[in-house]
Prior knowledge:
The structure holds 2 protein chains of 2 kinds. Helices cover 0% and strands 57% of the residues of chain A. Chain A is built from no helices and 11 strands.
Amino acid sequence: KNEVEQSPQNLTAQEGEFITINCSYSVGISALHWLQQHPGGGIVSLFMLSSGKKKHGRLIATINIQEKHSSLHITASHPRDSAVYICAATYNTDKLIFGTGTRLQVFP
Amino acid sequence: EPEVTQTPSHQVTQMGQEVILRCVPISNHLYFYWYRQILGQKVEFLVSFYNNEISEKSEIFDDQFSVERPDGSNFTLKIRSTKLEDSAMYFCASSELRGEKLFFGSGTQLSVL
């Protein structure tokens, strides 16, 4: 069964800390997505990757195909980074299979 | 930046009533999707749509659900006879090409009473 697992479920940090959110998935993905869901519910796509590493501002996403694992890192975290971060995967179709999300709170 | 627009933002309906959720995808996008998120649960895929037909649908997307692209801009999700368990946030999404980055609307919160 195609599944996506995330950890941790909840994460709190002090402003400035380096944050890592982990995602593991079952074999055979086409692509791995990281998304951000704001408190109001809106979803924004952050990264889509199938190999290697991508960086956008303070966000870095990596994927290790052999280990079936991806990480999302946030450097120099800020309270405005507080949101739910979701890992999702596609498996030879274009439908996304979502993880449960990681609720991040960054305190000043 | 272009965005996916969904209306209404909130919809309250009585069980058994029909609802239509509306979406305006980004204008040059070709692939369209509906997802839903029941409170406290994962986001779930409902249906994908390309070239005026359904390309894939989930087990959730039964005969009570239908999608339509009635003109060149709107993409609608209809639920014929709503049930209590249809209460959820419904997200429309679109992408320019298959397998590309998705752009999501801000969602319609559907409450079935």
